[in-house]
TrEMBL record, chain A:
Gene that specifies this protein: Dana\GF14556
Ranges of Low complexity composition bias in the record: 378-401
Taxonomy of the source species: Eukaryota, Metazoa, Ecdysozoa, Arthropoda, Hexapoda
Organism of origin: Drosophila ananassae
Cellular compartments annotated: Golgi apparatus
Keyword field contains Transferase: no
Start and end residues of each Trs120/TRAPPC9 first Ig-like domain: 649-758
Family statement drawn from the similarity comment of this UniProt entry: Belongs to the NIBP family.
Protein name: Protein brunelleschi
Trs120/TRAPPC9 N-terminal domain ranges (all copies): 231-307
Major localization listed first in the record, in broad terms: Golgi
From TrEMBL, chain B:
Cellular localization per UniProt: Cytoplasm, Perinuclear region
Keywords assigned by UniProt, alphabetized: ER-Golgi transport, Transport
Annotated source species: Drosophila ananassae
GO cellular component, one term: TRAPPII protein complex
SUPFAM superfamilies assigned to the protein according to its UniProt record, in alphabetical order: SNARE-like
Matches recorded under Gene3D superfamilies: 3.30.450.70
Keyword Transport: yes
Protein name: Trafficking protein particle complex subunit 2-like protein
Amino acid sequence: MRAAVGLMLSHGGAGLEPAMSRPDYEQSALHHGCLLVLLRGVGPSRARILQRAFEKVRRVSHIRVNDSSGNPRSIWIRFVHDHPVEHNDWGDFQTHRRLLGLITIGKFDNQTELNELCRQHESLKVRYGSTLYESRAIFFGPDEPPLKTIGEAQESAPAPVARRLQDDFTTPSNFKSQAFFYREQDSCADLESRISDFASALFWVLESRRLERSREKADKVSLLLAPFEKRDFVGLDMESRNNRKRCVGRVMKNLADLSLQAGLVEEALSLYHNANETLRSVGDSLWVGATEEGLCAASAILLYPQMREIETLHRNSSLQEAGTSPLKSTPEKWRASDATKKISSNEATANNVDSGAAAARLTSNSSSCSSVSSLVTTATNSSASDTPTTSSSSTSTLSAAPIPGHHRNGELPGNILKAEEITSYYRKAIINYSKYRHAATVETEAALKASRICIEQNRPLDVAMFLQSIMYINLSMTEAERVKRFEIITELYQQIGYQRKAAFFQRLAALKHVQQGSQAPDWNQSYRLMLGSFTGYLLCLDPLEVLENAAGWPSLQIDLVQSLITAARRLGHSALATRHMTFLLQTQWDNMSLTEQSEMAVQLKNLSAQCEGSPVPLVLENGTVIPPANLTDLPYCLDLQVKDLPAHLRPQRIKVAKADSGPFLFTPIHFNSMDRRDKKKDKNKIAFLWVQNDLSEVTVRLRNPLPFELPVTDMRLLTNGVVFESLPQSIVLQPHVPTYVSLHGTPIETGQLDLQGYSTHTLGVKSNCRLKHMRGRNFPPNYLVDVIPALPRIAVKSSLPQTATFSNMNSADIVVTSASLTLYNGESSSCTITITNESETLPLEHLEVNINSNVEQELQKKIFRIDEEALKAKLPVPPQGSIDFELHIYAEADFVCPLPPASVHSNAATGDYGATSLPHHSTMSASGHASLPSRVSSPQHRRNEPQNSSFRSTFSGGQHSLAALSLQPGGAAGPSSLSSQCSQHIEAQVRMKYSGGEALTAGYCRQCAVSFNLELLPSAQITSWDVLPAEIASQFYLVLDISNLTAQEMSLNYTDTKNILIEAKESCRVPIPVDRCSLEQVVAARAAEVAENLEKELCFRTQLLSFNDALSKLCSTHIAEKVKIHWLLTGTDIKGIASLRGIVLSQSMVDLTAVSPLQWAISFQDTPVQPHSEIVCTVGQRSLLSIQLTNQSLQPLRNLVLSIKFYQDYLNGMENYNLETRVAISGPNRIAIPLLEKQEQKQHTCSVIFFTPGRFKASVECCSNPPKEQPASVLTRSCPAGSLEENASLFTSSYDEQQAHVWKFIPPIEVTVVEQ
Amino acid sequence: MAFCIAVIGKDNAPMYLTTSDMEQELDLQYHVHAALDVVEEKCLIGKGAPESKELYLGLLYSTENHKIYGFVTNSRVKFIVVIDSSNVALRENEVRAIFRNLHILYTDAVCNPFYIPGEPLASKKFDRAVQKLMNGNA
């Protein structure tokens, strides 16, 4: 309590100087017509309780009284909370400065407190006693104690509550004022009427004074003096004419003041005019100024009655306006329109006091009565900044408030000052005042009043002029007062929208608070004002907004923020200092030089050492929220890349999405993939997927713009959407070097993940660096990644050793392990692949294995084999469980050297077969067909001429004959691509698609692969082959030259019973008896060929001669099926099977392989010739040879030539056909058979005479020669495919006619000729 | 002669500022910045008839130490000249002359095809000329 009183006294005690030292900055022109009442809270301040009372009292700012003659008077009260006593001394000069009334409001709990309240009231009365007309005390007593008796008493008699309070507590005897007692929770319903009574009491006293004054005789009046004038008039002749006039003038002016206060504005106006004239004539400048000001005041009261209502509200609303539009908007909108609006709504009755308006008035007033409670002040500030209502709206609510308009614009008195005159009168008044040093306060106040009027008149330049003039007034005042003056100027500048000026003075005020030499620098105020001046410099607390606007003067902004930082630091609020420093770095980075940048960075580091910065809004005590500032560009992010999962963990669709079904390879039109188009629109949408619970990665490229090392710690990804566990990352960035940083994290949920940026902790400040705030780098505002349900992970092992190098096959990145294996051609092996489910919870439910390799599909199927059924049966694999499966590998290779069809034909033309024909082919292949495989490679040939290198080269050329393959029938093409001579590498990937759990239902899987490196070594090689007739017609001999290409001895098992050993790199020849190809098969093959030909014909193929020989194919497969050569490397367990697949047979071989269409029945000397039967005849004796041919085949044979030849076989490879001297045949030995129908028989008989004894052989053969004319197929080609039968027959014939066939009687007839 | 010369763009962004006393540069910037309110107000008044508009705005305001004069070109580029209050010898006509010369210098500077309108004036030639103007021997 003492402290409170002390505070009040200290406020009051400021004015011990002779002149008015403290300008009343709140004063406006309209206050000239108000009764000044001191409204003061006494006793221990209990603001909240008393607040209601204050409010109620303040609401009675205006009353209407009927004067003695019945005219209504409008009386205005001005409540102040503090009034320097010495201001009363100026009461003669300007009566409105006189304190007329006193109201104290106090709260007491007991008698002692009540006594104290009374004492204080009395002391205030004494203090202002010289001018006080009336006083009231309002006392709030304690609430009624909850005693039953009292409660009952209250019920019985509710009215005398106050009385009983007064009964309970008695005021001390020396307390003479009228007191109102209320309970604490009382609604004080009668308080307003009591205050009205009080106001009217004041009025009546005032009125009496006025009347008294007006009745004074002109010659009797005494000289009224301003306080400082007392000395000036000492010893002057008061009776001089001049002085008399001066007295009269001053009294007249005084009377005018009183009339103005008493509601007689018009009278006051004319009195002012008179006084003005009177005083001007005597050159009383000070009082002339006063009359001029009075004129202005009286005119303003008439012209701008609305100023009463909005005088204080303007301040708030303009503040809001400043907040919304930093750049000045034209201030007309709130000035011009108000006046008309107010005047039109004057008729509202006094009862309709809008409580909202009253409340607003109260709050605005309370900013000036800060001694009541600092809480109220802060509330005002916050409410002013929080609710951005425009001034027009706030004034329109006020328009409901009662404004007693005695005078309409139309009936204004004639001597009123016009709007523009007011300004000039004020100017004059100020000039007059400025002549007196002691009137500085009055001058200041006049200037303020003038500027307020000019604000009302919408003349900002005049406002600026008046405000500027205040700066010139040399007023000796305390620093606090000076600051106050700056603040009030700021406020007024803000009202006219001069934000820059306002900011300038606000900053000055802030600096004044803490200027050097100041005893008690008030950093708090300084900070507040600095913050307030932000708008003037186009700054705002939100760094993003500042960056967005990028306006204002950078150097000033930097300076201001730096001052702010200093203030915050001095306040001891290091969190704020850090925040502002971060703000400075973020917003002004581009406006700072390099050295400044690094200086600031270091400063920030020092500041944050005291309090770490974090990206949360700070709330000041007054409710101001300081939004977070982030060091978005420190370090500078060059780019940000969302990384896909590693290839072997990458999720993919189990079923591949349907491809575009358009007819074009490329088309910009998307036929049925709407979703894909949608994705393209989304620029920030990431094309790939992340998997729940899988570590994901984002790469950020950062650059440190500072010249020193920048440690960045705790870097994490900032995400939205699904829960994401981010792993912190730390890095030290070297100056100016772009550095890649990988940020990791694990999505915990499924759904869409929104990657917004990353957070850093650098220079002691935590920052959230969001992509959308990174400017000038074309980043999307965020990245969206879809997170799919968790997928199991597997580990794959193979039983084979790993390779050193991974393959370079495509999609090698999914390979997780590798295996290598070396096999000899024909060998089989297997590999166990173990799959372990590594995931903790998820079972492996889906597993798909397929094999990719660099060989063709057909061959690959032969090499690798997996039992998929068995594998499927092993699923699912529980978490942490494992399964294994076998991969069977067979070293498939080509064991034979193929022959192209071309050579087959040429071979046939010779009509020879067997190894004897080989030399011919060697010459052929030497004649330029380097790629032509040939029988040159015959081991026999090699044995014969081992030194011949030229043949060697041909040989090697033959081994690598790949070009010939394209001519091969389709089925045989695959295996022949293998080169059997050298070791061969096959790369393969066993790809496994696996999935499980929810992801499986969602249709996702993962893929990994085992890379196989298979090396195939050559084993056995069939270098040449031939077909020989066997001893029986149902069989033939397949004679093979097999070489062992391994480095070991090889045991070859070529029939069921026969074995042969071959040394390393050696070869040997083996005969294998094989059953002939049956006639049915041949027939079927023919039919197939016909169909094939027909098909080709339909396709308009014309290359008839390149038609594949179905028969030869058939024979080849027949041999491959029948003959399996098992080999074994002796001494090891390496074994394998060499197949003869792909063997190429010449026409003559085919004829031998297949069962002949001709059935021979030969009799010699009427004895049928049996195979290997001994036929003996004597020299010179005629022997009869009878040959019977039967066509067993299904079609007729044409152009057959039956020929009989005798020869001698020397059994050394030489055969002698020149037997003219030894044997003679009677009858033709060549018989042409033009046509041999089906099942037709032909008989030919001839006689043979041998001249010499010896062993002879007779070869009986039947050739079919191709016809001379064009083949019939040419004709059929042009035929439409009408009748299949016809075509078929034509084809059949054409086939037979084209081909030269030789059918032999096997074995040749052996005749032993003996001497007679 | 003059104390400080400033060129301010039409969006009130500073384009050029020089002063004969570098120590006070920041303080002067504050003053010049505060003067912009009055400049804008005066421009607003002269809005009605642009052809007859007086480019010279006269004394914007004065402080204990400085008198601040304003000038606005037709493209709304503002020139502010700060003159020492103690320098009573300087007549208003001379201030006008300073502005006229400054206007010519500015026009020359922006005629440079490499100058981007709105950017700060970095031309050394302009700077030299303005320094000369400021020192009163233009």
